[in-house]
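Exercise 3.2. Students should predict the tertiary structure of the chain below and write it as structure tokens, then compare their answer with the key that follows.

Predict this chain's 3D structure.
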Amino acid sequence: MTRRVIQLLVGLALYGFADGLCVQAGLGLDPWTVFAQGVSVHTGIGIGWITNIIGLLVLLLWIPLRQKPGLGTVLNILLVGTFIQLTVTVVPVASGLPAQVAMLLTGVVLVAVASGLYIGAHFGPGPRDGLMTGMHARFGWPIWACRLSVESTVLIAGWFLGGTVGIGTVIFALGIGPLVHVALPLFDSRRRWGRRPAGVEGSLEGPLPQ
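Answer key:
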């Protein structure tokens, strides 16, 4: 249990750091971060704090879907946005295309590693993924349809609000699935420690396994 909790904490912190690198690369973001950035532009509140607030609001949508949060869900709301905010405060914006590309690719790879860590800890889905799986369970829609409808909506809304959509958005969409596919078995606590934790499942805040 202790090792799983540490793995969860490291994974969530690393996820926020990696997402912050993608923000500072300035080449485009995943849909939810585009939305958070757009809201941040209009409110003046830091993108990391907005990410936490959005996570909390999304969690409220679990109530009619009859979803139950886990420890990973709660810590996801508290930690991911916080580490995004710390990263964009400390790490300067990338200057020049080579530096932007390098920072973006580093961020995407680290997001995959972080996803493998916190999913592999098996402490429950993040709030946004729980929304999609809850829609699937409640309405019977395919996961891909739930994901497409939700993420396309927040992406378009974020874009209109001023969030960054670009080549980084495409790279994230195309690359994160295969990268997580590689990373997840490396950090799966059930496989590594030969135990099956009772009553807990892992999921991914962003690139949900199909």
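Discussion points: The chain has one domain: 2-193. Residues 2-193 form one domain.
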